[in-house]
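Below is a filled-in request sheet from our internal design queue. Each sheet records the structural input a requester submitted and the sequence that came back. We keep these sheets so that new team members can see what a complete request looks like end to end.

REQUESTER: design group, bay 2
PRIORITY: normal
MODE: inverse folding
CHAIN LENGTH: 121
BACKBONE (tokenized):
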């Protein structure tokens, strides 16, 4: 695991630093960073809204093994009624307005609580 660095909140990559700068510039609520949620170390977590953002840089996430682990982690979070969102450098650079809108929508969306099933039509 990378060393935690920089001023609190702690980050482990340049992409995490850029994402936090994006959050601040957009006036979004500040997430907790590098905390365990449902046994998974996540990059950013909005506890009350049960939203996780994982900053997926190519250097760390390019192997088949890491790709598969990321999917297992997403499932583990979803089973704990936590919503994972994966953010890449290209999205941050070229789709910032859309990404901001998506995060705002997720932060204001109704929550699914653990053990609560979705009702059918």
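RETURNED SEQUENCE:
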């Amino acid at each position: 695991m990378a060393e935690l660095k920089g001023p609190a909140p702690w980050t482990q990559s340049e992409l995490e630093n850029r994402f936090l700068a994006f959050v601040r510039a957009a006036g979004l609520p500040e997430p907790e960073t590098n905390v365990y949620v449902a046994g998974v170390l996540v990059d950013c977590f909005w506890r009350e809204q049960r939203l996780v953002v994982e900053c997926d840089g190519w250097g760390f996430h390019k192997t088949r093994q890491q790709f598969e682990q990321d999917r297992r982690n997403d499932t583990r979070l979803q089973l704990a009624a936590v919503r994972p969102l994966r953010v890449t450098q290209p999205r941050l650079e070229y789709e910032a307005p859309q990404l901001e809108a998506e995060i705002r929508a997720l932060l204001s969306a109704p929550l699914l609580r653990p053990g609560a099933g979705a009702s059918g039509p």
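SHEET NOTES:
- The beta strands are 32-37, 40-46, 51-55, 83-87.
- The CA atoms of residues 53 and 85 lie 5 Å apart.
FILED BY: M.R.
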